[in-house]
Amino acid sequence: MGETQVVSALRDKRSELAGRIEEAERDIARSRADLEHIDGALRIFAPGLTLESIGAKRPRQGTGPFRPGELSRLLMNILRRAGAPASTRDLYDAVMTAKGFALDDDESYAVIAKAVSASLGKLKRRGAVMAGLGDDHVNRWSIAPPRSVTAS
């Protein structure tokens, strides 16, 4: 009797994951070798440096189809040109259009919406933008007024 579809699908998935693990292990081995070479160079050029004092840096997370800082700049430019507070939905649409995505592309829309929401949150925490509820009870985003600096 032949394999069931479930067993066949599970075998395929297992094979795929095993391949991904092998590739990740090769990447780790290459990174460890590179790290040893850099440590050797540091020992030559900075013999007093304690290598353990150099902390690990987390890799930068990408934000979908955007280069670092691109989405923040794009949102700020959209808000500057808007002339009036813009809804989150308007910002999603403007970013989709600016990046050349079709507004009816649901998959891309979900990625862009998530990235825009995260970027707006960061900009708000930095004090660059502010949100307020419009008459329609929808969040409206605008550029925050400059902070005044007072001497103490």
Our count of helices gives 4
Poorly predicted tracts of residues: none
CATH architecture of the largest domain: Orthogonal Bundle
Going by CATH, the homologous superfamily of the largest domain would be: Winged helix-like DNA-binding domain superfamily/Winged helix DNA-binding domain
**What's the order of the H and E elements?**
HHEHHEE
Alpha-carbon Rg, integer: 24 Å
Termini separation: 85 Å
Strand order of the largest sheet: 1-3-2
Whole-number mean pLDDT = 90
Number of strands: 3
Proportion in β-strands: 5-15%
Described by strand count, sense and barrel closure, the largest sheet is:
3 strands, antiparallel
**SSE class:** mainly alpha
Helical fraction = 55-70%
Structural domain count: 2
Sequence-ordered SSE layout with sheet pairings:
Blueprint: H1 5-45, H2 70-82, E1 86-87, H3 88-98, H4 106-125, E2 129-133, E3 139-143
Antiparallel strand pairs: 1-3, 2-3
Helix pairs in contact: 2-3, 3-4
How would you sum up this structure, described in words?
The protein has 152 residues and is mostly helical. The chain has 2 domains: 5-53; 70-143, Winged helix-like DNA-binding domain superfamily/Winged helix DNA-binding domain (Arc Repressor Mutant, subunit A). It is 56% helix and 8% strand. The protein has helices at 5-45, 70-82, 88-98, 106-125; strands at residues 86-87, 129-133, 139-143. Strands 1-3-2 form a 3-stranded antiparallel sheet. Strand 2 (129-133) and strand 3 (139-143) form a beta hairpin. It is flat, with a radius of gyration of 24 Å.
